[in-house]
Specification:
Structural class: alpha/beta
Strand order of the largest sheet: 1-2-3-6-7-8-9-10
Shape: globular
CATH superfamily: Aldolase class I
Number of domains: 1
Bound molecules: ribose-5-phosphate
Radius of gyration: 20 Å
Order of helices and strands: HEHHEHEEEHEHEHEHEHEHHH
Distance between the termini: 63 Å
Helix content: 25-40%
CATH architecture: Alpha-Beta Barrel
CATH topology: TIM Barrel
Largest sheet: 8 strands, parallel, barrel
Number of strands: 10
CATH class: Alpha Beta
Length: 296
């Protein structure tokens, strides 16, 4: 028989109205608890922003520069990120299962860089994403590409599956070589992904008018980094994107191809989470990079 509750006095705080927990992430107030919980895992609680590390490039590019040995080059960065974006192959073969870092799983694929890139299929079952305890799945969508409808269909199928289990979908706006990365195109592509149900959208930064892209997209946008730039330029881009409405970054090559990836990821954190100006973040990067080089 369980013990009776013998406490004489109880306090129900009858004068205190019950607080409704607020969801601060843009457009995310109407999801079920599990989906919201998964989304929240990958976002910094205080700043409401995220620094995700994208290391999924091998799914179509093979051993990309900087990702040849993920165990050697990437593992030291993991403590500094809010989430990792990777494939299930890398997760299972190289990530320690006791890592507390949330994982977004790359869930589309098919063609390599040798073929038509937009000809993708869904590459991960939602059940496997759950088995891997992913906080969400990511899928490439080629708006304006030769297989536009097919890639949109990949995304909407994953969104339906995601709603069955509470798994958010991150839609990635893939930009073919022939398409301009301007606000008009990115505004079109991000809005389409959000309208069709993506809970998060990843896209590239553009100038001018990136703030129109983020304003027109009803769900959080995270900025993809793109090709390697000088560190100061990459920090400026991350800073500007967040100041202009991005909910964070999901950067790859500008981190892992940096002269000092461990210093760069920490400098990016400063710009995203603390709004440190790019010039100061660059000084921070340089000092830390020198310190780390000396310590080797
Ligand atoms: C590329 O296909 C992937 O979606 C990457 O995750 C994305 O482009 C971000 O990586 P990067 O910053 O290197 O562009």
């Amino acid at each position: 028989m369980p013990e009776a509750d013998t406490q004489e006095t109880k306090d129900y705080y009858v004068d205190v109205p019950q607080r409704n927990p607020a969801v601060t992430l843009k457009g995310s107030g109407s999801y079920d608890w599990g989906m919201t919980h998964r989304l929240a895992r990958g976002w910094g609680l205080e700043s409401g922003k995220t620094v995700m590390l994208a290391i999924d490039h091998g799914y179509f590019m093979g051993p990309t520069a900087g990702l040849e040995r993920i165990d050697v080059n990437i593992m030291p960065l993991v403590p500094y990120v809010d989430a990792v974006f990777c494939t299930r192959g890398i997760l299972r073969s190289l990530f320690p299962a006791w890592s507390k870092t949330p994982v977004w799983l790359r869930a589309s694929g098919g063609p390599s860089i040798l073929k038509e890139l937009s000809d993708e299929e869904i590459a991960v079952d939602i059940e496997d994403a759950l088995r891997l305890d992913a906080c969400g799945v990511g899928v490439q969508v080629f708006v304006g590409g030769p297989f536009e409808t097919k890639t949109i269909n990949n995304m909407t199928k994953l969104i339906d599956a995601g709603y069955r289990y509470g798994v958010p979908v991150l839609g990635v706006t893939a930009v073919g070589r022939e398409l301009a990365r301007d606000a008009r195109y990115l505004g079109l592509a991000t809005r389409i992904l959000a309208e069709l149900g993506a809970q998060v959208v990843k896209t590239y930064y553009c100038e001018p008018d990136f703030e129109q892209v983020t304003a027109g997209c009803p769900v959080p946008i995270v900025m993809a980094g793109g090709k390697k730039l000088p560190e100061l330029d990459a920090l400026k881009m991350a800073y500007n994107a967040v100041q202009q409405g991005a909910a964070g970054v999901d950067m790859g090559r500008n981190i892992f191809q940096s002269e000092s990836p461990v210093a760069m990821i920490q400098a990016v954190r400063k710009t995203v989470h603390e709004a440190l100006k790019p010039e100061q973040a660059f000084e921070y990067y340089r000092d830390l990079a020198n310190e780390l080089a000396k310590a080797k």
